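Dear Dr. K.,

Following up on our conversation at the group meeting, I've run the structure prediction for Cell envelope-related transcriptional attenuator domain-containing protein from Paraconexibacter algicola. I'm pasting the input sequence below exactly as I used it, so you can double-check it against your construct before we proceed with anything downstream. Let me know if the numbering doesn't match what you have in your notebook.
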Amino acid sequence: MDDPHDRPRQRTPRDPRPRDPQQGPPDYPVFRARPRFLDRLDPGPAVRSGEPGPAPDGPRRGLPGLPGRRRRGGRRLSPGRIAWRLLLAAVAWVALSVVLFVVSATIHGGGVDDGANAVLGGGGVPPFGATNVLVLGSDKRSADTKEPGGSTSGPSRADSIVLMRFGGGKAARLSIPRDTVVDIPGAGRQKINAAYAIGGAGKMAETIESFLGIEVNHVIEVSFENFPELIDAMGGVVYRGGCVVSRINGGFRNGGYTLRLRAGKTTIDGKQALALARTRKNDCNPKESDLTRASRQQKITQAMRSRVLSPTGFVRLPWIAWKAPSALVTDMSGPTLMGFAAATVAGGSPPTRILKPTGAETLPDGGAGLVVNDEAKRRAVERFLGG
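The predicted structure tokens came back this morning:
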């Protein structure tokens, strides 16, 4: 008796002829592939009616060696769609930076003395209207300095004095040498940097308004403690200049900082930038004056702007936005400071202008100072206000 399992299996041959669609539905089940997401949104007239759609006119794109198989991942993005998505990402990145800047300014804002608030005011709304801002840096020593004659207590004098005018299509900077002799309201004739020691930012703003006739709308005091962190958040800045060897607060041996920069193009970090801005005596060129120092300070400001506008600065923009307000003490609110920062970046790089002295004067205490005659002041003020 034959075992049925030993018998060869018989297969029913398929009809090689193509099926006529008019013969009705096939005898075997037909499974339809689940449509993709975009096909669900617009499946086409044939699919909507429940009927099989027409065959495509040409061969379907697929993986190499597998005709008719679609490439996993959907349709390719066109260059225009890629550019649009990159633009949206860039806008979101900038928006995040703006939010971080305003929040940081709200947290770290304030700190300007009441005398300054009484003097300041007016001006346009940056970046739409021109605004005059007085930027100050003090000569305060570090607590552990061993510099001979260096004091960490008592009032400090203004180490750098810069007037900035930005917004409303204006862009101007004017550095005032710290040894310029002026009449300080209520304190007599002294060097202008003494005004800060006498009455803080308010007295300095009042003195400049009396000396130059320029209304000071806002004031910014640079925090030497946090300024290096801002430069480091930028990834450093690119400085171009001559050789500099200087000792700040007595140099390393006395608890200060020793700066050594070669001539040419150099990327400097936060501590180097701060030391460069404060350098008065340069061993590479002992003939340098306070005017050279003021010029270096404006170069650092321009280098910071260039870094913010560079690809590196764009990548680091949220970190820069968060650190910037903590490096400043100002009377401006977060939105106002943000507007002024935007006006500064958009205003370009105005030429370096310094209130150059026209003579010298010996003070009652025996010290020597610089004087500026009325004609030189008038020309400097006209150029500054003209932007």
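Two things stood out to me. Confidence is low (pLDDT under 50) at residues 146-151. The CA atoms of residues 235 and 359 lie 42 Å apart.

Best regards,
J.T.
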